[in-house]
Fold U-box domain-containing protein.
Amino acid sequence: MPGSLEPLDLGVQIPYHFRCPISLELMRDPVIVGTGQTYDRSSIESWAATGNTTCPVTRLPLTDFTLIPNHTLRRLIQEWCVANRSYGVERIPTPKQPADPVMVRSLLNQAASESNSRHARLAVLRRLRGLARDSDKNRSVISTHNAREVLLGVLFSETNSNSSELNLESLAVLSSFPLSESECLLVSSDPDRISYLISLLSHSSIDVRVNAASLLENVVAGTRSPEHRAEISNRDEIFDRIVGILNYPLTYPRAMKVGIKALFALCLVKQHRHKAVEAGAVEALIDRLADFEKCDAERALATIELLCRIPQGCAAFASHALIVPLLVKIILKISDRATEYAAGALLSLCSAAEGLQREAVAAGVLTQLLLLVQSDCTERAKRKAQMLLKLLRDSWPEQSIRNSDDFACSDVVPF
């Protein structure tokens, strides 16, 4: 092994013992394994996760993967970072220690015990929420100890009032975890539980509203029963309140993310999509479309396509001057899925009104579609593009028709 230093691109040298033996990078969270060797936590955890059972340096077997923080080495690394800040080295933050399984089990038992005081249980739930927010690993540790069962029990406990902090804190923790199919059924099959969650969608706190929407989305998406999903989407004011979250006036990324997930899940129930239109979903989707991140933009476009498949939705979108140019612009810009949904929505709109066909052509859809059918997009996207090209054929300018032969699209056939 090299004795001391190795050069770094920055012109500063990192002491060899500050580097992780696995990644060879500066350690941010050094931990000691059973053989006495020190590694960066993320590196040794990845090593173990791939099935390795030996110490990478000594090759001795590791029967216990308990990781002990090397606080002394971490402090030395931090001091070295500070001493070399003139070279652009940033001080590594003091890492938060992962949740201890024994501690998590104890916290959940305390939260579930009605013999404990309300104040004590509330403190425990807040601690669990903090742990869950710290890292994916913490959430995994908490989830393996029947946390969702405990939290659902607290959330829907008959001994708590509907507005108690205990209920709301358990909801906040629960919103960090996906529910199993049986847990979704436990909620969706109980009308009182659904009513309670819907009532929280109008709570004075936006955090509570978003947490309730997150759990409802989880339940709707995870419930296999079409009857239960239909019953939830048919509830009074559920669409109005979800759209209200989506329209939250202040910058709150989580409200937008949860709002569009919940709206999409509810719109999968075809017979109640008109309720989304009546609640103002069309305007909200158009107004917010440019603000979504990639994955959420895909959901928003999928929801637009779903709503365009019903007469009320198609008419509502058709009356908005921005929708056609917006959808045309999106094609090939965000992702393959976004392109597919945008093309599908345009197909529904242009099939419903000749005026929209002319708008689409004027917005440049012809070029977009011709590029799309020659791209590596999904077959479904190409099929929708071909159908739309066929539909718009009579609206093409003569020059465009001649140019389209260069794209081998003269043989477009209906599907």
Summary: Residues 189 and 227 are 10 Å apart (CA to CA).
